Amino acid sequence: MLEANIEKFIVNGCKEEVRIYANTNSRSNTTGYAKDQWTYMVEIMIITIKCLIPRDASHGSVIDYDRFNEELNLWYYYRHGDNQSLLASILKKEAHYWEYSDDSIYSRIPPIVFANEDWKLVKNQVLKNILYTTGRISSLIEGLVLAKLLSVLVSTPNIKVDDLINEMKEEIMCFSQKEFIENFTEYFKHPLNKYKGNYTIDFERKRIEVLNVLNRIYDKTEYKILKAALSFLCESKSEGYDSNFFISGLIGLRSNISDSTSIKDEEFIRNLCGFLVKLRKGRITGESLYIDKYVLPDIFQYKEGDVFFHSLLKKSQVIRRINDGNSIICFIRTRSGIYRFVKHLNT
User: Fold this and answer.
1) Which residues on neighbouring strands pair with residue 53, listed in sequence order?
2) Among 179, 120, 172, residue whose Cα is nearest residue 143
3) From what superkingdom does this record's organism come (predicted)?
4) What pLDDT sits at residue 28?
5) Distance between CA 102 and CA 106 in Å, rounded?
């Protein structure tokens, strides 16, 4: 049941991202476009899963940020879609860190929740991971309450909606600003004194706004994903909201809708769901996943047919290479699928 529920969430979320990518202009300008290609949201979800490392002391997995950094540096060259928060973090251009609204948190939160049974650990890891790309208070609080929603649904799938919402309210009411600052200041990308405004007042205002949303009082344009989640849970409606990995995943988890949309490397995606269950149950050791020494060759140096090893891609082969004078495009086969890497020249 657990693995099936996780699979329904992730696969349905991925199928939505395939539809989103198919409806963007980017596909017509992409060399080697595949009809079942997903957006960067799925790529970031996969990266998050690959960076989860079991703790030695007890069940529970945490993000390895050395690997997370390297994975994002590589993602820069194969991404399908852009995200200003992620790109700013990679390029060290974080002037708007406190204002960035980062959609990728909606695909980074589920793997952390699914891999862990301990809510305190989930909460810690979710907040830390959001702070990696944005310090926006509304993103932190919405991300926390969505993580709570998903954590409760996975552990108690038959819970009544009113009871679920009450648990979400309780989490936000007990979310201490003082404890948050004491425990997470070291993870801010910018010093708190660089925040434009009064952080204390803004934090409490945002906390009240989210509580109002949980009480179905909508007077702000923010928290669209939380509003859509509540609309679906309470009324079985998701119309009127932008499609999104998280909402589509939630619909997949809570319904038996059959979706024929095909997704790239679907077997690999389904295997990742089983991997998350193994992490959750403590069946994988950290030693088997930890990378002690990184081997990160320049993938653009290789010719067609070359086989090489890369710590993140493992054994890889260049199956096609294009150099049109403006960019180098390399199609590389790995055990998890085929990647299209693009490096723009003279930029």
Assistant:
1) 62
2) 172
3) Bacteria
4) 45
5) 8
Cα separation, 168 vs 229, in Å, equals 12
pTM exceeding the 0.85 threshold for the entire prediction: yes
| Third-level CATH fold of 2-292 | ADP-ribosylglycohydrolase fold (1.10.4080)
* Integer Cα distance of 140 and 148 in angstroms: 12
For residues 69 and 296, what is the distance between their CA atoms, to the nearest angstrom? 13
Using CA atoms in the order 69, 74, 80, 84, what is the torsion angle rounded to 10 degrees?
Answer: 40
User: Which residue type sits at 15?
Assistant: K
Q: Pinpoint the residues of the chain covered by CATH 1.10.4080.
A: 2-292
Structure confidence at residue 22 as a pLDDT band (50, 70, 90): confident
Which of the residue ranges 244-248, 253-257, 262-266 would you say has the lowest mean pLDDT?
253-257
- Helix segments in 132-197, DSSP class H: 137-155, 161-173, 177-184
